[in-house]
Amino acid sequence: MKRPTLLIAVVALVVAAGAAWLLWGAGGTKSTTQQAVSGPYTVQFSADQPRIGGNTFAVAVTGPAPDAVTVAPVMAQMGHALAPVPAGPDGPGRFRAADVGLPMAGQWEITVSLRGPGGPAQVVFPLLVK
C-alpha cells in the first residue's frame, strides 16, 4: 500500500469512528439512577433514557415494604405539575411507573411518594430531559 492511500484509509477510519461515537456514544440521553433516604426507606430511582413523551420509571425500596408508591413530575421553572402516577409492583421491593408523560425538555423534579408501615415518605429526584 502506498503512503497516500494509507493516509486516506487512516483518515477515513478516524472520521468513521468519530461519527459512530457522536451517533451512538454521545448522541443519546443516558440512563440515570439515583438514591436517597427518607425515614426508614432507602429509595433508588431509575429512568431509562428520559425523553419528551412517555417514560418508564423504576423505583426500588429498601426498608419496610410500602403499600403504595407514586411518582409525580414537576417542572417548577415552567409551572408544570403533573398528576401523580401510581407505580405498580415489579418484584419484591421494586415498583414501575409506565407511560409517565413529560411534555417538554428541561429540568424536571420527580417526587417519589411512599405509604406503608414505615409511615409516609417523599423523596425528590432531579431529572434532565433533553
Automatic annotation (TrEMBL):
It comes from the Bacteria. InterPro entries: YtkA-like_dom. Residues 37-112 form the YtkA-like domain. This is YtkA-like domain-containing protein.
